[in-house]
Design a protein that fits this description.
There is one protein chain. This protein is 78% helix and 0% strand. The protein folds into two domains: 3-169, no CATH class; 176-362, Up-down Bundle (Methane Monooxygenase Hydroxylase, Chain G, domain 1). The protein is elongated, with a radius of gyration of 29 Å. With 365 residues, it is mainly α. It has helices at residues 3-22, 26-51, 59-67, 72-99, 103-117, 129-139, 146-169, 176-201, 207-218, 220-237, 253-281, 292-314, 319-343, 346-362. The longest helix has 29 residues, at 253-281. It contains 14 helices and no strands. It is a multi-pass membrane protein. The chain crosses the membrane at residues 29-48, 54-72, 84-117, 129-150, 157-175. It is found in: Cell membrane. Keywords: Cell membrane, Membrane, Transmembrane, Transmembrane helix. This is Aromatic acid exporter family member 1.
């Protein structure tokens, strides 16, 4: 490995930390949750060991760390699941120890039974830990002491309570900015693609350009999924969140969701335009390339569609400005539709119809 590669590898954590400190992006959210998890673990240990003087209070910080979830709602749900899972694990370990005289066989039965019980959906992500926790209790020998088993339950409830309190009260996570960024990134990619196709239509089309457009349009599904996940995470983060009354986001959830749906449904039609351009670049009949005036007119339409995308997704400008740009876009669509009736170009027809459908999806909501 070269010195340059080693340098990049060594500096990667520092760059990540710099982004977390300077920008309100996913790095900062991850750093904040990690700090909160560490704080919850320390507080849970101190409470269990110093305040309640519980012996071997390992479950308290363990439970507290896993409770600091991505949203307060998930923390509350996880709290119930963890308490239930540990309760079942303690009971399972006690029963196995009482019935099975050999520790090794008891370990196998506890793990097998615990993992099978943990398949129940009501345990959620805590399900697999039933068998593991029962195993730990048996191997550490605490299962024979009923007082220690009760302590395990107390530790879990204590850790869960502290973890939930830390996540709910110390900068409870919200994802409005991330949802906006994801939607804008998707819209920006679409607008840039439309503008690049328009610019190329005014010059000389190359097969490399056309192949790149088709590939970008087809791979947009990844961006769509990222935006959908961010928006759903934002919706969930507002439930049971004390910050939701303090942080007011510019674009309400329903409107942001409608914008995303419009972008998502428009992408297949944009991909169809890119595919037609790739086909007509080789001028293979019957998909002949449109003539120069038609290409100019269609380039104007694509530019205006890009403006519609940006205004719709970014929320910039007034409603009157958006309506004005939309009217110009529809006018450009009428112009190219008239040329289609005059030229009877299959290549042009393969772009005009998906452009009409894309515009309809972008303005549906």
């Amino acid at each position: 490995m070269t010195d340059h590669v080693w340098s990049r590898f060594a500096l990667a954590p520092l760059k990540w930390f710099n982004r977390a400190v300077r920008g309100a992006g996913p790095e900062r959210a991850a750093l904040a949750q990690a700090v909160k998890a560490a704080l919850a673990a320390v507080l849970a240990w101190l409470a269990a060991a110093e305040l309640f003087e519980l012996p071997q209070p390992f479950l308290a910080p363990w439970a507290a760390v896993f409770i600091v979830e991505a949203t307060v709602y998930r923390s509350l749900r996880s709290a119930g699941q963890q308490v239930a899972a540990v309760g079942v694990a303690v009971s399972l370990a006690a029963v196995v120890d009482a019935v099975v005289p050999w520790q090794v066989l008891g370990m196998a039965i506890a793990v097998l039974t615990g993992l099978l019980i943990g398949q129940g959906r009501w345990f959620g992500d805590s399900g697999p830990w039933i068998g593991i926790t029962a195993l730990l209790l048996i191997t550490w020998g605490t299962v024979t002491q009923s007082a220690l088993l009760v302590d395990r339950l107390i530790e879990t409830v204590l850790g869960v309570s502290i973890g939930l309190a830390v996540n709910a009260l110390v900068f409870p996570p919200v994802y409005g900015a991330r949802a906006q960024q994801a939607t804008r990134r998707l819209a920006s990619d679409m607008a840039e693609l439309l503008e690049e196709m328009a610019e190329a239509l005014r010059g000389d089309l190359s097969s490399d350009q056309a192949d790149n457009w088709a590939s970008r349009a087809s791979s947009a599904l990844v961006l769509v999924r990222q935006a959908e996940h961010s928006i759903e995470l934002n919706r969930e983060s507002r439930r049971l969140n004390l910050r939701q009354s303090v942080f007011v986001f510019r674009t309400p959830y329903d409107e942001r969701r409608a914008i995303l749906c419009g972008l998502r449904d428009a992408w297949p039609h944009i991909a169809e335009i890119a595919q037609t351009l790739r086909t007509t670049t080789g001028r293979v009949d019957p998909f002949d390339a449109p003539d120069r005036p038609s290409r100019e007119a269609f380039a104007t339409l694509l530019d205006r569609m890009a403006s519609v995308v940006r205004l719709r997704a970014e929320g910039q400008g007034s409603r009157a400005e958006f309506e004005s740009v939309l009217a110009e876009t529809r006018e450009a669509l009428d112009v190219i539709s008239d040329r289609l009736r005059d030229t009877y170009s299959f290549g042009l027809a393969g772009m005009v119809l998906p452009a009409r459908h894309a515009l309809r999806e972008l303005t549906a909501a």
